[in-house]
Amino acid sequence: MSIPDQIHALEELAAIDADLRTLDETLTQERGVLSGLKANLKKLEEKRETSKTAVAASDRTRNDAITDVRTMMQQLEHSREKMGRARTERESNAVQRELEELRKLVRDREDEIGKLTTEGDAHRQTIESLDADIGKLKAELGSSEGDIHSKLGQAEGERTSRAQGRDAVVKKLPTVLYRRYETIRAKRGTAIAAVTVDGTCRACNMALAPQMFHRLRREPLLEQCPSCNRIIYFVPPVAAAKESS
Ligand SMILES: [Zn+2]
Questions:
Q1: 231 CA to middle of ligand 1, Å?
Q2: CB within 8 Å of 186: residues ≥ 6 apart
């Protein structure tokens, strides 16, 4: 493979790698949007589940308290009857104390029922607003999921075909040169740079030593930039214009 062919293949490879990077960014971004929406939905659904468990527990406690009050009301009725049957002051005082105690117990239980009712209502309100949020998010997912999937599919398809094109270019390149390209690309993001007509590296803008620039201009040659280590080469403006026409 001649040096001009190597330069051409390297440029092709660099263009493909730039495209692949853009495609990967698109894929990451779109996947991120999708997984973000799904994670939010999951979080809301978990919150709703927690609230539902809490409301069920609070309702159960409230029902138990209501049953307790009913039982105590029967006991109160019973004590009142006992009061009617009391013969001595001592007896009636004892029943009076029993009645007061029961009334206090009923009041306490009723307070508790009131609190549990408020608590249950708050939970129900939370569930209602969570349902609204979940509905909104599901609608958003529904409208954007298809769009995102088609974008993902397109980008993935493009990525596959670009990767195949890359393999074909890589096969053409000398192995040593490709390894060097990959090593530099891993460190710098891009691995090649054309040298400008005034002798500077296009990637890092460092002016090359006159001797090196002279060598690059005299014949097709691959060098490495002393400053950024990228593979550098010089394409005369006329040749460049011919190539692009
Ligand atoms: Zn450089």
A1: 8
A2: none
CATH class of 28-156: mainly alpha
Ligand 1 midpoint to CA 205 (Å): 6
Per-residue pLDDT tens digits for 45-57: 999 999 999 999 9
Rg of the chain's alpha carbons, rounded to an integer?
41
**What's the 87 CA to ligand 1 centre distance in angstroms?**
114
CA of 191 to the centre of ligand 1 (A): 10
Q: Rounded to a whole number, what is the distance in angstroms from the first to the last CA of the chain?
A: 23
Separation between Cα atoms, residue 53 and residue 26, nearest integer Å: 41
Q: Is 234 a residue whose pLDDT tops 80? A: yes
What residue ranges do the domains of the chain occupy?
Answer: 28-156, 178-244
Q: What is the dihedral of CA 12, 18, 19, 20, to 10 degrees?
A: 110
For residues 32 and 153, what is the distance between their CA atoms, to the nearest angstrom? Answer: 15
pLDDT band at 238 (very low <50, low <70, confident <90, very high): confident
Distance from residue 177's CA to the centre of ligand 1 (Å): 17
Specify the residue for token string 């659904």: 45
Nearest-angstrom CA–CA distance, 88 and 57: 47
> Taking ligand 1, which is a single-atom ion, which protein residues have CB atoms under 5 Å away?
201, 203-204, 225, 227-228
Q: Is the pTM of this model over 0.90?
A: no
For residue 189, the CA-to-ligand 1 centroid distance in Å is 13
